[in-house]
From TrEMBL:
Pfam families the record matches: Glyco_transf_4 (PF13439), Glycos_transf_1 (PF00534)
Protein name: Glycosyltransferase subfamily 4-like N-terminal domain-containing protein
Database matches in PANTHER family: GLYCOSYLTRANSFERASE, SPORE COAT PROTEIN SA
A GO molecular-function descriptor: glycosyltransferase activity
Length: 290
């Protein structure tokens, strides 16, 4: 069996999922290939995807997709995907996240490929914090592309319900498959090392998260909640592990509230598991997940 994964969002949770899925399939005798950009637009330091897969022996089919909507770039990416699908007889095409999900489904239909087409949204873009008009556009694009795939994979019953209720696909074509996550092995000594690196006292309450600094993840709520906690627990510290376009805004928010000394915005870290292991409490402030 031969599978082509099509990915534009080669960072953060999508990266982790596709890396685990593609390499896991190979271990079970399934040939996996990945069509993706060699470097994602606005990667914020998270650039290990292509190197990781190449080192694992998984072929990369370069496609210059980008996150933002750009008719010329998107048309070129669509043309490239059609060419890839016509060049190789894949059995399954698995699309990941909204941009690759839309272009990949159009390409699968236009190419005449006989492969089964499966789409994992990794979060529904039309639930975002953008304008109502933009979210309505994303919803209509998802409904259009939903006609061109055999299954949509939700990671939870609630996401499955949203996909069905918003008319992306009928219930019989929406499956719920929770993400499998391999628990990392982190030495117990890393907890003290992380606190020492960040200048956080050993006994101070440490609260944090690991996520992109993006509107979906709602860093504004994280900072506002930190300010409330500090009124009762002035020794507490807060860590955000992950980069993103809202880094400067989040830091400015903490500064304006007078809590910058207790808020640590680390950017992308390859040792995120060790950072999280140092937390006393994990917060998730996302507006939605997927």
């Amino acid at each position: 069996m031969r599978v082509l994964h099509i990915v534009e969002a080669t960072i953060a949770g999508v990266r982790t999922h596709v890396q685990a899925l593609a390499t896991g399939l190979v271990q079970h005798g399934v040939q996996s290939e990945v069509a993706c950009p060699l470097r994602r637009q606005n990667s914020f330091g998270d650039e290990q995807f292509v190197e990781y897969l190449t080192n694992a022996g998984i072929p990369i089919r370069p496609v210059a997709m980008q996150r933002s909507i750009d008719p010329r770039s998107d048309a070129a990416a669509l043309h490239r995907l059609i060419a890839i699908l016509r060049s190789t007889p894949y059995d399954l095409v698995h699309l990941h996240s909204s941009k690759a999900g839309f272009l990949g489904r159009l390409a699968a239909r236009a190419s005449g490929s006989r492969a089964a087409v499966v789409y994992s949204p990794h979060g529904l873009a039309f639930l975002g914090a953008g304008s109502a008009a933009k979210n309505q556009l994303f919803l209509q694009l998802e409904r259009l592309a939903g006609q061109f795939c055999d299954r949509i994979i939700a990671v939870s019953p609630s996401e499955r319900g949203l996909i069905i209720s918003h008319g992306l696909a009928p219930a019989e074509r929406v499956a719920c498959i929770p993400n499998g996550v391999a628990a990392p092995k982190v030495p117990a000594s890393s907890r003290a090392a992380v606190r020492a690196e960040l200048g956080i006292p050993a006994g101070a309450p440490l609260i944090g998260t690991a996520a992109r600094l993006a509107p979906q993840k709602n860093p504004g709520l994280f900072v506002a909640a930190a300010a409330l906690v500090l009124q009762q627990q002035p020794a507490a510290h807060f860590v955000w592990c992950g980069g993103g376009e809202l880094m400067a805004e989040a830091r400015a928010d903490a500064e304006s509230r007078g809590i910058a000394h207790a808020c640590h915005f680390l950017g992308h870290r390859d040792d995120a598991a060790a950072i999280v292991a140092a937390f006393d409490l994990f917060w998730l402030t996302s507006r939605y997940e997927g």
